[in-house]
Amino acid sequence: MDRGKLTKDSFSCISSLSKVASFLDPERYVIYDSRVIYSLNWLLFNYTDELSFFHQPTGRSTNLAKYDMQTIFRLTKLGIEYRKHTVAYHDYCGLICNLAPLVFGEDSKPYKLEMLLFMIAPKWIVNNIEECVSINIDSIS
Q: Taking the model in full, what pTM does it have?
């Protein structure tokens, strides 16, 4: 995983592989978790001009399953893309490592931001989606 491009097979089990990488080098690698990616994608979508997001691994959270992020993105018709599996994990780690000091101050560890994103997904992010997203269905005459 060290700076190399990931194959489809290795990315298909990134949740597990990233746990090992994070354990071995927590200064550079964070866990690629479904809740974290859900929060991160929603925040990037709402607070940046970013149109390239991270594939969300399958999760077990029933709260997150209520609002499928891909469906929400597709309905906006903004041309949302997902990062290629070859670079997504390294891009994600780089982003978390760069943002952690901005959120928690200099010398902050990236796993603190990862834990915050994990924690806010089922309540704060879902509540924010419920407040921000509405669908208007026009009937066909």
A: 0.90
Q: What is the pLDDT of residues 42-100, one digit of tens each?
A: 999 999 999 999 999 888 888 899 999 999 999 999 999 999 999 999 999 999 999 99
**Torsion angle, CA of 53/55/60/62, rounded to 10 degrees?**
40
- Helix/strand/coil for 135: coil
**46 and 76 in contact (C-beta within 8 Å)?**
no
How crowded is residue 137: how many other Cβ atoms within 10 Å of its Cβ?
Answer: 5
Q: What is the residue extent of each domain of the chain?
A: 8-128
Locate 66 and state its tokens.
């209520």
Residues 6+ apart with CB under 8 A from 82: 52, 53, 54, 55, 88
